[in-house]
Amino acid sequence: MTESIWNDVDEFFAERIRPQDTSLAAALRDGKAAGLPQIQVSALQAGFLEVLARTVRARRILEIGTLFGYSTIHLARALPDDGRLVTLEHSPAHAEVARRNLERAGLGGVTEIRVGAALDTLPGVAHDADRPFDLVFIDADKENNPEYLEWALKLTRSGGVIVVDNVVRGGSVADLSDTSPGVVGTRRMLDLVAASDRLDASVLQTVGSKGYDGFLIASVR
Known about the structure:
CATH superfamily: Vaccinia Virus protein VP39
Distance between the termini: 38 Å
Largest sheet: 7 strands, mixed
Strand order of the largest sheet: 3-2-1-4-5-7-6
Structural class: alpha/beta
Order of helices and strands: HHHEHEHEHEHEHEE
């Protein structure tokens, strides 16, 4: 099996069940034109997040790591009219591209981008939250995954869901000789999940247009 086959199969499914509308196509185009890293989730992965948010009937969503708002659009589309999504982005330039993409998609009214290092902005999110979040999606710098998970546990309701992206790291997570910060941070996060009596979790390995990686999905008890 090769990445070419993975890409072809991704396209096969995406064309049939997750076709890109004009807002999503424009978001992808503008993110690339602005020179932002092309590390967003795939169309199928974004669709998975949207379906998951609908399944848990999310009214409040927290996203850690906005980039140019591709996953944000999908998640926000799952919200009811009175729902709210807060997304955290370190880069002001990235946040500005994402803000334009969300406005064009008609989602400016239900989304809020907070700019700055997530570990600096999360205390403010906690202070301002009038109720817990139903779903938290973590897709930011991997070395801080343990801290992001701890914040997610504080901020997510019982019965809510926490999703962490890029936990397989192309298989490096299982290679104990790999001590790169992102891999070590991911392992530390997994150790916290394993030790927590509040989380019921599993991992799905994925292949496709984004290569070989995977999601951790946890239900909060």
